[in-house]
Amino acid sequence: MADAALRLRTLAEDLLGGARLPVRIRAWDGSESGPPGAPLLVVRNRRALRRLLWKPGELGLARAWVAGEIDIEGDLYEALDQLAGLIWESDEPARSRREIARDPRIRAAVREMVALAGPLPPPPPPREEVGRRSGPLHTKIRDRQAISHHYDVGNDFYSLVLGPSMVYSCAYWESGEDGATTLADAQRDKLELICRKLALRPGQRLLDVGCGWGSMAIHAAREHGVQVVGVTLSREQAAYARKRIAEEGLTDRIEIRVQDYRDVADGPYDAISSIGMAEHVGSTRYLEYAHVLYALLKPGGRLLNHQIARRPQSDESSYTVDEFIDAYVFPDGELAPVGRTVSLLEDAGFEVRDLESIREHYALTLRHWVANLEASWPQALRMVSPGRARVWRLYMAASALAFERNRIGVNQVLAVKTPVSGESGLPLRSREWR
């Protein structure tokens, strides 16, 4: 009988419609098969196959990865890049489940997988997976639970990944060359860019929606003299932000609240920043989100909406969320094409004045975060479970490649609550931000 690695390789290529697998495989019996020098996919346990039998596709693979039953040895980016063309970016037309089930090659491959996997029942999902959810999307209670899953995993872990800036959104790089800019410098430059786009001046009031660990609030208060209210649904973030603010001597200028943005009732504000928060809002609530922020601004006030976007699809009704991201990273998170975001902001009354795409900047940022995590892997495993650390490594590396390949993007949208007079308050050459 052929060794397990060869059987796995043949099985995978049959399931992929005969496409050649671009990675080498090492199986649980120590056997290897595939092109020498290629990235090595390690299948440590046949439980991984049982997961795929019971949950075919991305979620089954994700469960095996999180459980440590499959792994990559060598360059993770190269392996994901090689596999992307087969898994996420295949040019083959999508087939229905009925067509797949009738394919004799697929049926034979499934029988082979059953023989390799063994007769045991499917293993339970890794504990890092979000449990069953019920009820309407994006209620205040459900949003609070989703935010807690992602952000309340330990401030020390986030500090290890994000570095001292503690900014969990795309940085703004001066150059893509290695060493040209530090992560801390690039995050500072991103915060300063936002402050300049908002034209913050001493004495103004800024609302920072989804304030995270307080970095934007601290920068705006310290460098631009504004009064800031930051809101977050994460208690761990709020506690960390308040400690930093006290250490900076800015408690008289910054208030951090554990509060849903829908419950903010002390407007009007001169400006609002929303940095990496709107991805959590969801398509069913996005117009409400835009209306709430519009109502909280003074006439002439500005909104800076910094948000990840996906590419539009020919049939938007067929869009589904990424199973791995939804189960392990951002429960209930949704990405929308930037055109839809702009349209909904305009529907709420905003005048959209500027859109800046900074897609490549996020790829650079993510590669720095992955490097931070990999450089401190033993320390990370003392802070969180091995499964949680594996979630983060895969999520960030795959996301970096998705930005590089233009599968997703990130945009800063500057919008104004333009008064009846029509005076937007922006300079004629708006890119000179002042």
Automatic annotation (TrEMBL):
GO annotation, biological process: methylation
One GO MF term: methyltransferase activity
Domain of life assignment: Bacteria
Gene3D superfamilies per the UniProt record, alphabetical: Vaccinia Virus protein VP39
Record's keyword terms, sorted: Lipid metabolism, Methyltransferase, S-adenosyl-L-methionine, Transferase
Domain Polyketide synthase-like methyltransferase: start-end pairs: 157-419
Pfam families associated with the record: CMAS (PF02353)
Presence of keyword DNA damage: no
EC number: 2.1.1.-
Similarity comment: Belongs to the CFA/CMAS family.
Name assigned to this protein: Class I SAM-dependent methyltransferase
Source organism of the structure: Streptomyces monticola
